[in-house]
Amino acid sequence: MSLTRNLNLRFSIAGGLMAMATFAMAGEWSGFVSLEHQGFFHLPLSPEQHRTYFSVVAQPEYYHRIAGTKDSFTFVPFVRADQHDPERSHADIRELTWIKVGEGHEWRLGIRKLFWGVTESQHLVDIINQTDLVENIDLEEKLGQPMVNFALIRDWGTLNAFVLPGFRERTFPGAEGRLRTSPRVDTEQASYESARQRRHIDYALRWSNSISGWDIGLSQFYGTSREPRLLPGVDGNGLPVLIPRYDLIHQSGLDVQLTEGSWLWKLEAIRRSGQGTTFSAATGGFEYTFTGVFGTVMDLGVIAEYLYDNRDSAAPTPFQNDVMVGLRLTANDVQSSELLVGVIDDRRSAARSFNLEASRRLGAHYKLSLELRAFTGAPATDPVFVWRRDDYLQLELARYF
What we know:
Layout: H1 3-26, E1 28-40, E2 52-65, E3 72-82, E4 90-101, E5 105-112, E6 145-154, E7 157-164, E8 191-192, E9 202-211, E10 214-224, E11 229-234, E12 240-246, E13 248-260, E14 263-273, E15 279-291, E16 299-309, E17 321-330, E18 338-346, E19 352-362, E20 366-376, E21 392-400
Parallel strand pairs: 8-12
Antiparallel strand pairs: 1-2, 1-21, 2-3, 3-4, 4-5, 5-6, 6-7, 7-9, 9-10, 10-13, 11-12, 13-14, 14-15, 15-16, 16-17, 17-18, 18-19, 19-20, 20-21
């Protein structure tokens, strides 16, 4: 390489790095790092599993508003390092998105996370992003999804169209992880209905609007199911495993929330075909909030929901005919203290799942979170039966910046 060419290359690299540094300095950095501890109350079913798990999490966020426009750029990477489970030690790009804002429309390009739904106990209509199951069994933690999203914003509502290339497989705990299936899920043998496998392009359409206290969403999805069927098989050592099977599905969804004073009435319903027999499922209920309880500034919400799936005992979910009741306490203090406690009761068996979540800010930069889960009474035919020894308490201390 000639001296001139070498110098030009160096100047080009230096110029690119300076441009990236300038761009980064022009934006805003935020995010958090945290230390998490999971402690399980019972000895595990498998000798490979452990009683305690420590992990470290980092999720920075970069946001840049492009000068002279309404356009913006967001980058949110995520990484977790777990003490025991290599499947839980993972990294992901939660968001890497450019948003182009026009007159009455928006383009959103890149990797994104978005949420559809209104109910507390489960989110049936939330189908765009894949569940990051190693993070939490509540199905609320999601992987970033590559997408092209066009939003048309009008008086009659907002119409969102999605083209979704690059399928993401669901994460599952490894052999040493807790709250896993038995036998474990072997993600290396995942199979697909589509010959294009992960390269299959999915599509979705959603209309939403707010009308006199009603928040309504109608959605349609066609593509690879985010919820795999788990089929029996064996691994390379001849040991039994479960193999994820990703089918092509059509799913129609409805989510509705009505706000009437202190009442919130909620409903989510879906109809899905392509994953065995066509089925329907729904979750609906209410939340009523008492303000200024106990003579304080605190608010207390009472939650009740019914969970239904017409596949009944053939459904892979434990929620086919269940009732959820809960309480949400919001302290309205400077520490943003919150408490949510709930129980899901199976109406046909003695199975119950208990959940408690609490959080409180410590000073200006720290937040302490607590999570408690317990499972009791599940018969051997219930999907929750595999977690009968997995009651746990989780503590997390996060430092925000």
